[in-house]
Structures are given as C-alpha cells and as structure tokens.
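Below is one record:
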Amino acid sequence: AFSTIILAITSIIVARILGAELYGQYALALVIPQILFLLTDLGISQGITKFVSVLKTKNELNRLNSIVKHGLLVRICMGLAIFGITFFFADFMALFLLQRLELAFYIRIASLAIIFQVIFTTATSVFVGFDKTEYQAISTNIQAIFKAIISIVLVISGFDILGALVGHTVSYIVTA
C-alpha cells in the first residue's frame, strides 16, 4: 500500500509539473516497453514462487537453487530479447504503433528498464516463495521511493520527459 501511495503521489506531481501534453508523451513512451515486458514472464514468476515454496518445505535445497537460477536465467534472456527488440525497433514502433516518431528516443530510454524489471520481479517472486514477503515489500517500497525522488528532482530540474523516464529506469536498476 505504501509503494502504491508513493507512486500515485509521484504520478500526480510529475503530471502537474510536465503538463498534459508532456505527461501524455511520457505515458506513451512507457506503453510499448511495459506491454512487451509482460512477454518476459509467461508464468515463470508464479512457477518460481510455487516451486520455491514447495521445495523449501521438502528441504530440497539443490532443486530449489536450480529453480531460482534457471528461472532467473530464462527471464533475463527473455528480458534481453525484449529489450533488444524494443530498443532497435523503437523508430518503427513509435511511427507505426504510436504515430509519433519523436517518441522513439524516449521508448529506447524506457526499454532499458525491462532488463532490471525482470530481475526485480523475479526476486520478489523468490521472496514470496521463501515466505519472506517483508523483503518483497521493502523492495517495492525502495523502488517507489527512488522513482519518486529521481523523477521529481529531474523533472523539476528541467529534464521533462527524459527526467521522468530516467527516474523510472534508475528505480529498477537500484532495486534489481
């Protein structure tokens, strides 16, 4: 709940500083990377949570380590592939999907967060599987706080859309 409140307040502050048009461009720049980010999971996070929990109760640490390692490896590979597609085809996506070629640079910046979001979400799945939800909550709160601080400071400093996107990306880098 705390991270949701922080992110909501951050969105309101950033939207008020940027204004409707720039905030709309910021939101559009995030749409494609965030939709493609969904393809990095394909149920792997839920599987990690389930199998970590089951194997922990059976005290099968070798299999547990293998599940975490391989799940993270698969997700990172998927994240790198989705990042590469998003980064290298940002012009095409901006032009044909959003009909705003000027957003291609911003899509590239937002695409950097994909790799680190993969690590972050996989780690939170592992925390839940280990019944360490407090670590999941702490991670989520840290991400929200970093996004708030960095985004707001950079937007106020005049970096506009770029500042908001850098705040978004750096928050995942830090928490990953």
